[in-house]
Automatic annotation (TrEMBL):
Major localization listed first in the record, in broad terms: nucleus
A GO term from the CC aspect: transcription factor TFIIH core complex
Protein known as: General transcription and DNA repair factor IIH subunit TFB4
Species whose genome carries this gene: Fraxinus pennsylvanica
Segments of this protein annotated with the region Disordered: 271-292
């Protein structure tokens, strides 16, 4: 499914899928550093600058909420350019209200993960639609403006999305707004050849966006973009969704488990007993992390 070079407009025409984190729990936690409204005004200026760079450029904005995700803005669909910002803000407001209404009382004490796996999948679906739409299409890339902590329960879905992006040659760029690094997005950017950046000062967010993430894929080969200092390769076990350093891997389907299982819960393969119980030959035990 890789796009053939002849199908591209030119090297520098981009389709930029921007995924913004609208998780209210996250924004409440950093409101003293960066307010959501200031963040949105930075994003709007960034989207406008992308559209100004090339008239064939296209941007699509997807909101990643706490319970849901949705397409907020598509520059190819908007008719009136003057009302672009208004319609975007209106749709965003409707989305945040709808997302909030889906919130159940009992789910609030969770640390507040946002639905990154869902919005990544939506972005990839949109890109596949563009690939199949006709003979000419822009070069797609995904930019995640993310702040919420990684939801271990989404590990499998996010890894599947990452491998799908890699297969379609779609780089996933990540700009981390929260205090913590995101292991999921570190891996996403590393595997797909995107840029991972955690800005030191969120006051200058637009500067980071415009200097690092506005460059099209062709121009990137001529630039010195930030390189990640390290990637957290730790995986989550499929049984409890915990992040683990060491684990057991099914040799048939590569499912990861934190404890020895008699049978793989994913593919049903039955594991041998003798080697697992004899701790002197732990050849089922493989290290999944080489970080730090
Ligand atoms: Zn487990
Ligand atoms: Zn298996």
């Amino acid at each position: 499914m890789t796009p053939a070079a002849s199908k591209l407009y030119t090297d520098d025409v981009s389709l930029l899928m921007v995924l913004i984190d609208t998780n209210p729990f996250f924004w409440n936690s950093i409101k003293s550093t960066l307010s959501f409204s200031k963040f949105i005004s930075n994003v709007l200026a960034f989207l406008n600058s992308i559209l100004l760079l090339n008239q064939l450029n296209q941007v699509v904005l997807i909101a990643t909420g706490y319970n849901s995700c949705d397409y907020i803005f598509d520059s190819s669909a908007s008719q009136n350019q003057n009302q672009r910002a208004e319609s975007l803000l209106q749709k965003l407001e409707e989305f945040v209200e709808k997302d909030e209404s889906l919130c159940r009382e009992d789910s609030v004490d969770a640390p507040g993960f946002s639905l990154l796996s869902g919005s990544l999948s939506m972005a990839l679906c949109y890109i596949q639609k563009v690939f199949r739409s006709g003979p000419l299409h822009p070069r797609p890339r995904i930019l995640c403006l993310h702040g919420s902590p990684d939801g271990p329960g989404q590990y499998v879905a996010i890894m599947n999305a990452i491998f799908s992006a890699q297969r379609s040659m779609v780089p996933v760029d990540s700009c981390i707004l929260g205090a913590q690094h995101s292991a999921f997005l570190q891996q996403a950017s590393y595997i797909t050849g995107g840029v991972y950046l955690k800005p030191q000062l969120l006051d200058g967010l637009f500067q980071y966006l415009s200097t690092v993430f506005a460059t099209d894929l062709h121009s990137r080969s001529f630039l010195q973009l930030p390189k990640p200092v390290g990637v957290d390769f730790r995986a989550s076990c499929f049984c409890h969704k915990n992040t683990i350093d060491m684990g057991y891997i099914c040799s048939v389907c590569l499912s990861i488990f934190c404890k020895h299982q008699k049978k793989c819960s994913t593919c049903g393969s039955v594991f041998g007993q003798s080697q697992a119980q004899d701790s002197s030959t732990p050849d089922r035990k493989r290290k999944t992390s080489v970080d730090k």
